[in-house]
Amino acid sequence: MLEFIQDAIYTVTGKKGVTYDTDFIKDLALNSFDIMNIIVIFEDHFDISIQPREVWHLHLVRDVIEYLEERGITQP
Questions:
Q1: What is the tens place of the pLDDT at every residue in 17-46?
Q2: What gap in Å lies between CA 44 and CA 28, rounded to an integer?
Q3: Which residues form the domain of 45?
Q4: Smallest Cα–Cα separation from 39: which of 64, 63, 21, 19?
């Protein structure tokens, strides 16, 4: 799952070096447009809908993985 998230972030921002503890805002300085573009990749790939109010709880890469796993998604 980490590799998929790394690829999504790279596709949108060109940034590498993402780990489980990477913070989208503090470490990567992503803006809301970048974050929403990454969310769209997740939604399209996993055929899910992520509500905007849920996005604000996803600060770290680890948060995204846990969020997806809670919805039964364990493989990219």
A1: 999 999 999 999 999 999 999 999 999 999
A2: 23
A3: 2-70
A4: 64
What gap in Å lies between CA 7 and CA 13, rounded to an integer?
10
The phi, psi pair for 26, rounded to 5°, reads: -65, -45
CB-based contact 15:8 (threshold 8 Å) = no
Q: How much is the average pLDDT of 3-12?
A: 96
Task: State the residue for tokens 């109010």.
Answer: 53
User: Residue 40 is part of a domain; what is its CATH number?
Assistant: 1.10.1200.10
Q: How many CB atoms lie within 10 A of CB 36?
A: 14
Instruction: With H, G, I as helix, E, B as strand and everything else as coil, classify residue 74.
Output: coil
CB 19 within 8 A of CB 48: no
Q: Report the residue count for the chain.
A: 76
66, two tokens: 């846990």
Q: Domain tally for the chain?
A: 1
